């Protein structure tokens, strides 16, 4: 295997010159740079990235931890994060936590050992203290961990308000909200808060069910049980489009006609929402902008710039066939 000394010898330059070319440090003439690059190509020389990152005190690698890469929301988010990271000269190490505390902590330690420059956190399993003691720059999605860790979210309260008011406007008399887990104090809980404020204010009969990030099969089981307990539900605000899709499947199997017997509003506006039949009315989160902003905020932190802690992006009601 070729070494940096072999490259220097073939190019007829000093080892320090090759190092400066690799790390883009100091002035190097165009002719010298071309000679070094040609020598590296002829020798198939592969620089030691760990050594380079130690020399530069920067790896240009970002860690991204998400709960489930197979979930359409997080898959699309990861896609945007990778795209904008690469555009800005960074690569991604993708970690799949599966909502496992031990696995999430293990990934954080692995990212630190691999000298990543910062972490974008989409998984929220560990306690706040675990993040607060990290010395790496961190950006989180939908989790306000502490006053000094920036987070990105959408306007969840407005989203919950628009969804609930639309169902009432469409004539629904008994509403259900299927929320994410409310155990953690996350900005996404404001969807539930908005739902509760409106149904109480307008004296609407309601049901609330909680679910963790889960499989489609488990969503179907939860929805089926809910209809067995409350067959008179005629409007549902689901906290994700995946849950909304499971409601459609259950409704079809038990003979509830959408929109005559049941109206549904989802959340996120993943691709599934416009592909399934009937197409899902939903609250659109600006996933592209969220991915772009997360990369920008993290790079700003890495570069020592001050960034806002709270970053709330606007949502949009997309009305389709389920209302």
UniProtKB/TrEMBL annotation:
InterPro entries named in the record: HTH_LacI (IPR000843), LacI/GalR-like_sensor (IPR046335), Lambda_DNA-bd_dom_sf (IPR010982), Peripla_BP_I (IPR028082)
SUPFAM superfamilies noted in UniProt: lambda repressor-like DNA-binding domains, Periplasmic binding protein-like I
Domain of life: Bacteria
Keywords: DNA-binding, Repressor, Transcription, Transcription regulation
Single GO term (MF): DNA binding
Chain ranges of the HTH lacI-type domain: 2-56
Pfam family, one: LacI
Gene3D superfamilies: 3.40.50.2300, lambda repressor-like DNA-binding domains
PANTHER family named in the record: LACI-RELATED TRANSCRIPTIONAL REPRESSOR, RIBOSE OPERON REPRESSOR
Protein name: LacI family DNA-binding transcriptional regulator
Native source organism of the sequence: Clostridium neuense
């Amino acid at each position: 295997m070729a070494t940096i000394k072999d490259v220097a010898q073939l190019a007829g330059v000093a080892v320090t010159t090759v190092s400066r070319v690799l790390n883009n440090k100091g002035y190097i003439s165009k002719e010298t740079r071309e000679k070094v690059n040609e020598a590296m190509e002829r020798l198939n020389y592969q620089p030691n990235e760990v050594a380079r990152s130690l020399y530069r005190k920067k790896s240009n690698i970002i860690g991204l931890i998400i709960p489930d890469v197979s979930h359409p929301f997080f898959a699309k988010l990861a896609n945007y994060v990778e795209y904008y990271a690469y555009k800005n000269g960074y690569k991604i190490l993708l970690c799949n936590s599966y909502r496992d505390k031990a696995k999430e902590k293990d990934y954080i330690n692995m990212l630190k050992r691999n000298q990543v420059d910062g972490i974008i956190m989409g998984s929220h399993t560990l306690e706040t203290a675990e993040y607060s003691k990290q010395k790496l720059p961190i950006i989180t999605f939908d989790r306000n961990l502490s006053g000094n860790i920036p987070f990105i979210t959408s306007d969840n309260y407005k989203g919950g308000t628009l969804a609930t008011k639309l169902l009432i406007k469409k004539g629904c008399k008994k509403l259900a909200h299927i929320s994410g887990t409310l155990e953690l104090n996350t900005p996404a809980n404001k969807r539930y808060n908005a739902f509760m404020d409106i149904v109480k204010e307008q004296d609407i009969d309601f049901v609330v069910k909680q679910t963790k990030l889960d499989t489609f099969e488990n969503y179907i089981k939860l929805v089926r049980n809910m209809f067995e307990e409350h067959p008179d539900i005629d409007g549902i605000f689901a906290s994700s489009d995946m849950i909304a899709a499971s409601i459609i499947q259950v409704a079809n199997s038990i003979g509830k006609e959408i929109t005559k017997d049941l109206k549904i509003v989802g959340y996120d506006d993943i691709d599934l929402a416009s592909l399934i039949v009937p197409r899902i009315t939903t609250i659109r989160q600006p996933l592209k902008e969220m991915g772009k902003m997360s990369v920008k905020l993290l790079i700003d932190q890495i570069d020592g710039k001050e960034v806002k802690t709270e970053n709330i992006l606007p949502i949009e009601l997309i009305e389709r066939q389920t209302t």
